[in-house]
Amino acid sequence: MSSDSIISIVWIYPDLLSTYGDRGNMLILARRAALRGLPVRTVEVRSDQPMPTTADIYLVGGGEDGPQALAAQRLIADGGLHRAVAQGSVVFAVCAGYQLLGGSFFAKGTQYAGLDLLDFRSDRGPTRAVGELGGPIDPRLGLPPLTGFENHGGRTHLGPSVSPLARVSTGIGNDGATEGAWRGKLLGTYSHGPALSRNPAIADLLLRWATGYDTLPPLDDTWADRLRAERMAATAAA
Amino acid sequence: MPLRAKVASSVSRTAAALSRAAGRGDGSVIGGWIGLKIDPDLLAHLAAGRSIALISGTNGKTTTTRLAAAAVGVLGPVATNGFGANMPTGHTSALAKAGQTPYAVLEVDEHYLAQVLIATEPRVVALLNLSRDQLDRAKEVAMMAQMWRTALAKHPGVHVVANADDPMVVWASAGSPAVTWFSAGQRWHDDSWVCPECGSPIERQADQWWCTGCSLRRPVPQWVVEDDGVVDPRGAWHKVSLQLPGRVNLGNAATALAVAAQFGVRPTDAVSRLSTVASVAGRYAQVVREGRNIRLLLAKNPASWLEAFDMADVAPTLLSINARDPDGLDTSWLFDVDFSPLRGRQVLITGDRAYDLAVRLEVNEVPFQHVRTFGEAVKLVPPGRLEVIANYTAFQDIRAELDRVL
Ligand SMILES: [Zn+2]
Question: What is annotated about its quaternary structure and interactions (chain A) (predicted)?
């Protein structure tokens, strides 16, 4: 946590990467922190503004090809996110934002350089992956199964120094077998938009990473639990 | 009209009548579908010789089409696709059914505008707005604007009536030689922060917006909503008494008057006709059940949810969300909507995807009760107004439930 003991959350480029209710992840993190009495500050950093280097959590959302390519160019030129990661900040990225964390990605038929923060690269798949996405999460993270919705044309190939976030039981994810990636305090997923709304345990993981606390007081997650159960039942039946 | 087109048109009308008689819908699609099978150019033949206005945009097109048809109706009967059948089959049915009337006002799905422009050679095209809709399959907003711009460039004779408050619409219209600008307001800004011309950020201040990197900026509108009326290009203010709620419908009325003016209809002659529109394909319909005055509002995407909150009275409110095929399968957009205007109202939630909504409302700090059925909701609210805001299939479900009871 930054020196003033307020958890600071930066939402990266909402003007470019906010296609699918991505604001939700920022709202959910802020709310879950506040309900535990943890002071929190949220900052929306537009693509024409310099990226702060000292925030605790950075969120990267989804977007179409053009904005995704533009976001990559500006983040590389700015360098602020790289400095923050080097200092131990948490990053949570979804969909197009997830692809940005890797070495390269495809947009509008062209290969673009990614931020190279995680060891993977993305290209185009034979089909667009649209629908429910889910599966058991890497046991080392100690989380209940992932559930979400994906909508992307990419396929992501993980290198040896990064771990998949989950194995796929529903949907496509990276390649039909694995989904998402994580290393250190960086985590990316194809579960797009407000991914944390269906995965409050991931939200709490990010808050634990940011604060250094091993545990956080439990919250009443009745509605999130019902939503998770309903979506997992629907995908099991399909 | 060539013989083939005559036959196609006649078969199209018969099929529509049969479809209605068989209780298989209102016939607004099937007739046109069969007619176009017999003669692929049927729509062009039916459109030939008529003065036509096309109305397109993400939101408000069904209502604006109804209002514009009412306004143009000063001149005589108007062909129109009043039930929201807004693809070429629906246009074909509407024109085949209407007979010889020289006027038509047609709602057009935004993806079909280019195609319908070619087929109908309209006199006027009204462009309302562009925003995110049906996330799992709709085109991105900038791509839609590009499609519109390209299509309009091929029809320089068309008079464009366009919303000065939406940067995407302004950019799409900017290549057209004849544009009338209206200001209908725009509550939703999250699809127009980036300039479609140069990629620079767009700045906003009060009603104004401008690109920080090029010359794109809000044009001066000739038709403007002011208080409970509309100011015309000559500066005259006309009181508009609508049965439809909300400022968004005053904006739709201004658009309708601007469209009608292109047909030579004076706003003074048209305004009284706007007040005859009470509901539009069930939208805004009011029904009384068990002492509750229930009003139905349709909200399909984030922009239309914001408008619905503005339209709704401060009263108990039922929200219903589905994610079936016509709605789009993805509920992520719930987090694009700020539900805080509902704080302080009694809020009930239902629908296939009520739990998605529950999680959203919790984060938004809007207290709510979950109900299994519409009937349960009616019993839980006190006698008086109940506002119902629902997305597409949820709206149809509630309409059906009300029809069964009444
Ligand atoms: Zn510009």
Answer: Forms a heterodimer with MurT.
Task: Give the pLDDT of residue B13.
Answer: 75
- On chain A, the residues whose CB falls within 8 A of the CB of B132 are 19
* Residue found under tokens 């503005």: B310
Concerning whether A192 is annotated as a catalytic residue, the answer is yes
Sorted by where each starts, the structural domains of chain A and their CATH numbers stand as: 7-237 (3.40.50.880)
Distance CA B293, CA B310 (A): 18
Region for residue B235 given its phi and psi (left: phi exceeds 0; alpha: psi -120 to 50; beta: otherwise): left
Active site residue A95: yes
What digits encode the pLDDT tens for the residues B349-364?
999 999 999 999 999 9
Place of tokens 């005859």: B276
Classify strands B51-56 and B124-127 as parallel, antiparallel or unpaired.
Answer: parallel
Reading chain A (238 residues) residue by residue, the pLDDT tens digits are: 555 689 999 999 998 898 889 999 999 999 999 999 999 999 999 998 999 999 999 999 998 888 899 999 999 999 999 999 999 999 999 999 999 999 999 998 899 999 999 999 999 999 999 999 999 999 999 999 999 999 999 999 999 999 999 999 999 999 999 999 999 999 999 999 999 999 999 999 999 999 999 999 999 999 999 999 999 999 887 7
Q: Using one digit for the tens of pLDDT, what is the confidence trace for B2-34?
A: 777 777 777 777 766 656 655 556 666 777 777
Query: Assign residue B200 a region: left if phi > 0, alpha if psi is -120 to 50, beta otherwise?
Result: beta
pLDDT of residue B281: 78
The DSSP call for residue B57 is: -
What secondary structure does DSSP assign to A6-45, as a single string? -EEEEEE-TTTS-SSSTHHHHHHHHHHHHHTT--EEEEEE
What confidence score (pLDDT) does residue B187 get? 79
- Is A128 part of any known ligand binding site? yes
**Taking all residues of chain A, what is their mean pLDDT, rounded to a whole number?**
95
Query: What does residue B111 show for φ and ψ, rounded to 5 degrees?
Result: -70, -20
**Is A27 within 8 Å of B363 when comparing Cβ atoms?**
yes
Q: What whole-number distance in Å separates Cα of residue B72 and Cα of residue B70? A: 6
CB contact under 8 A, B358 and A227: yes
Please name the member of A15, A24, A226 whose beta carbon is closest to the beta carbon of B193: A15
Question: Tell me, what's the ipTM?
Answer: 0.96
Contact A131 B329 (CB under 8 A): yes
Is residue B340 predicted with pLDDT exceeding 90? Answer: yes
Terminal CA-CA length for chain A: 43
The yes-or-no verdict on residue B406 having pLDDT over 50 is no
Sequence-distant (≥ 6) Cβ neighbours of residue B141 within 8 angstroms: B130, B131, B132, B168, B191, B192
B201 CA from centroid of ligand 1 (Å): 7
Measured between beta carbons, the chain A residues lying within 8 angstroms of B364 are 27
DSSP A178: E
